[in-house]
Amino acid sequence: NPVRFHSVPAFAAATDLAIDVPGRGKVVVDIAYGGTFYAFLSAEQLGLDVCSSRTRDLVSAASAVTEAVKKQFKLHHPESEDLAFLYGTILTDGKDAFSEEPTTNICVFADEQVDRSPTGSGVTARIALQYHKGLIQLDQTRTFRSSTTGSLFTGKAVKATKFGNYNAVIVEVSGEAFYTGTATFTVEEEDPLKHGFFFK
């Protein structure tokens, strides 16, 4: 059965933000928080297709957007400035309006890493953006597909709330996971470190 969780308060930090990406021109991005901050834009703005372009090309383009946004836009987190940083960029198929059909994205984060899934915090942030823009309503479920593996998550805004000065939502994210192995740990009575140890 799918596993579900409710997110931290998620919100749109900026919409329709014009960013100059060196070597790629100007693009328009949205920035949202779903546990961490992401920049969102359609791959089409970068001359790519999130469903058919090479992953390496998508990663390179998304990374360039991340670096450009970091230099051109200052983030703010209502509770902790330690969290006020852009974790990555999510390229989408541009299908943000509510639909029963899945919408596809790729999440490029940290040091050009690619998520195998549609990304829990990314789905959360993307739902918050769509709700902020009036594209979805509370309790409308959307399905998100990973462009790399085809894996699916669903997300829906289940509650409107406030987070600092931001209008936010709590998002329910659902997805499937499968066991890939088990581990057994053994403690021997004679082990002098069986209870652990401290450094002074």
Automatic annotation (TrEMBL):
One of its GO terms (molecular function) is trans-L-3-hydroxyproline dehydratase activity. Its EC number is 4.2.1.77. It is an enzyme of class 4 (lyase). It holds the Pfam family Pro_racemase. It catalyses: trans-3-hydroxy-L-proline = 1-pyrroline-2-carboxylate + H2O. The keyword Heme does not apply. It comes from the Eukaryota. InterPro entries: Pro_racemase_fam (IPR008794). The keyword Lyase applies. Coiled coil: none annotated. Keywords: Lyase. Signal peptide: none annotated. Belongs to the proline racemase family. Homodimer. This is trans-L-3-hydroxyproline dehydratase. It comes from Sterrhoptilus dennistouni.
